[in-house]
Design a protein that fits this description.
Radius of gyration: 33 Å
Largest sheet: 2 strands, antiparallel
Strand order of the largest sheet: 1-2
Order of helices and strands: HHHHEEEE
Number of helices: 4
Distance between the termini: 111 Å
Number of domains: 2
Strand content: under 5%
Shape: elongated
Length: 170
């Protein structure tokens, strides 16, 4: 008799556990509750304004470039596009009337080429903004000539190295 009572108690406990687990699935949410079906799957904290979208895109392309997924040429074109979008959105938020954007290719043609840092041993380095050579650790410079003794950057018309004083070959 006690085994039948134990079996009935176990069965009642199992039915209660199944009911507890399946109740949220079977019963619809009450109207006015926190979980409304139209917001399901969306993050209420997600800002979808043009400004926020452009700024997130800028962060993402920075990350992609840092991890090596994006080439410098692609990065430059995407950054110009998203920066223009972010600026337009910021101006729209502040009420400033945007000026017509000049053509990017015209800006690049008018701007002088940017000197990339170079290592005296390994030459121009592919890392943007680097201060030291990734191959040998020497300080990088935008100068085109370097001292043969100390590796210091030389001015274009220098006759002596400013770092060690050695005479520079012409």
């Amino acid at each position: 008799m006690s085994s039948i009572l134990e079996l009935a108690a176990g069965l009642a406990l199992a039915v209660a556990a199944v009911f507890f687990v399946l109740r949220p699935i079977v019963t619809p949410p009450a109207p006015g509750s926190d979980s409304s079906p139209e917001l399901e799957g969306e993050d209420p904290e997600d800002d979808l304004s043009p400004r926020a979208v452009a700024l997130r895109a800028l962060k993402e392309i920075e990350f992609d470039r840092a991890t090596g997924k994006l080439s410098d040429a692609d990065y430059d074109s995407l950054k110009a596009t998203y920066t223009a979008e972010a600026l337009a959105a910021l101006r729209a938020d502040s009420g400033v009337v945007p000026e017509p954007a000049p053509e990017i290719s015209r800006q690049r043609a008018a701007a002088p080429p940017v000197a990339r840092p170079a290592c005296p041993t390994h030459g121009v380095r592919p890392e943007a903004g680097a201060r030291f050579c990734s191959a040998c650790g020497r300080r990088l410079s935008t100068a085109t000539r370097f001292c043969a003794k100390c590796g210091g950057a030389l001015e274009p018309d220098a006759r002596f190295c400013a770092a060690c004083g050695r005479r520079v070959a012409a």
